[in-house]
Amino acid sequence: MSRSDKFSSVREIADAVCSDIATPEQLEALEHMLHGNVEAQRFYYDYIAMHMQLSQCEGPDLELVFRRTTEELVFRPSHSEHRDTPHVMSVDAAPSRKKSHWLIVPIVIAVVMLCMFIGYRYLSSSSPYIAELSDGSLETIGQGIILGDKLVAGNYRTLQPTRVRLGNGNILHLSANAEFKLFNRQELTFYSGMIEVESTTGQNTLVHSDSFTLDTNGSDLAVTVDNEQFELLTGESTLIQPKRWKPKHYWPFEGASDRVIDTSGDAHGFTGPAARRIDGLVGTGAFAFDNSADARIDVGSGGGNAPGTGSFAVSDGVTIEALIRPSYTGKFGDIDEIFRKDNGDQELRMLLSFQHDRGKAYLKPEGDFAQSLSFGLYILGQGYHELKLPLDGKNGRPSLAEINNGNSYHVVATYQVNTGRKSIFINGIELASYQYIPGSKVLSGGPGTAAVGNNPAQHRWHIEAFNGVIDEVAFYDFALTPWAIKQHFSEVQKGNNYFGLSSNQDNLPENVKIPLSPNSTYVIDPVTGLPDSMKSSE
Question: Residues 246, 210, 46, 53: what is their CA dihedral angle, to the nearest 10 degrees?
Answer without folding.
Answer: 140
